[in-house]
TrEMBL record:
This is PhzF family phenazine biosynthesis protein. InterPro entries: Phenazine_PhzF-like (IPR003719). SUPFAM superfamilies: Diaminopimelate epimerase-like. It comes from the Bacteria. Belongs to the PhzF family.
Length: 288
């Protein structure tokens, strides 16, 4: 069984930066186990599998896998897959499409060279103490931003949002893998457990996403789903309207730019993230 696939770099304006993504087409006959094995083989942060295409309505059914598990929602895979469908698959390069993922339909639109998605309404979960983080990291209490909470937020995938007060603290961040894993398993509400550290300095957002996969501490180059949670967090606690760029991946040599455009009105969140995508390669994958 042969599958056409594409490789793209997402949330970047140049090749070999941003977050890598493999997009597999014609994947409707693959089992979940086969998708997981392929995602583990290619070993990007995520891979996507297009299981159905509706050319009449410019929509597609999509499943998303990390090397370890399936995701209910993830931003860079949705943005990157949308770019492939809009530019390589659907007729006439449509400016609007719909992707059906496990949490539901996601509306996508393209404006110039940016592809945007609108996230689901966020859920705000437990709040944590700064002292918790000093037990499994090199952070001191003085490294945290005093004005904001540390809180787990979900828009389909959950992240613990951790505000720091400087680039220095963010850049020098060190986590103890085993203690971090233990804390995440004890405190997070879902099987997807991750930390999203950020700071705002000189009106610029800089972020880092870290999690445990395959018993390793992993850092992501650009995390769209975490960015939707961070945007929700900022709309709730910082400002009811936001339009800016979130910079991620700088500390692992994969600089990324995730565009934010959001508004909070009468407790209704309008959360949009956007990004540029770079085409890298295409080919045929022998699935069996």
């Amino acid at each position: 069984m042969s599958l056409p696939f594409y490789i793209v770099d997402v949330f970047t304006d140049k090749k070999y930066a941003g977050n890598q993504l493999a997009v597999f087409l014609d994947a409707g006959n693959l089992s979940s186990e086969e998708m997981q094995i392929i995602a583990r083989e290619i070993n990007f942060a995520e891979s996507t599998f297009v299981t159905n295409l509706d050319f009449k309505n410019n929509s597609a059914d999509l499943r998303i896998f990390t090397p370890e598990h399936e995701m209910q929602f993830a931003g860079h895979p949705i943005i990157g897959t949308s770019w492939v469908l809009m530019n390589k698959i659907f007729d006439n390069s449509p400016d609007e499409i719909k992707l059906n993922v496990p949490i539901g339909p996601i509306a996508i639109h393209k404006k110039e060279d940016l592809i945007w998605l609108k996230a689901a309404q966020p859920r705000f979960w437990d709040v944590f103490s700064k002292e918790d983080f000093t037990s499994f990291s090199n952070l001191k209490v003085s490294d945290f931003e005093n004005q904001y909470l540390i809180q787990e937020v979900s828009t389909g995938s959950a992240f613990v949002i951790v505000p720091l007060n400087s680039k220095r603290a963010l850049e020098n961040l060190v986590l103890d893998k085993d203690k971090t894993d233990e804390w995440l398993k004890r405190n997070c509400k879902t099987s997807h457990r991750a930390l999203y550290f950020y700071c705002i300095e000189d009106s610029e957002i800089i972020s880092r996403m870290l999690c445990i996969e395959h018993n390793q501490l992993v850092e992501d180059a650009a995390t769209g789903s975490a960015s939707t949670c961070l945007q929700a967090f900022l709309l709730k606690y910082h400002s009811p309207e936001i339009e800016t760029i979130n910079h991620q991946g700088d500390y692992i040599g994969r600089p990324s730019q995730i565009y934010f455009k959001g508004k909070l009105t009468d407790n209704e969140f309008d959360i949009k993230i956007g990004g540029k995508t770079q085409f890298i390669a295409k080919g045929e994958w022998e699935a069996c």
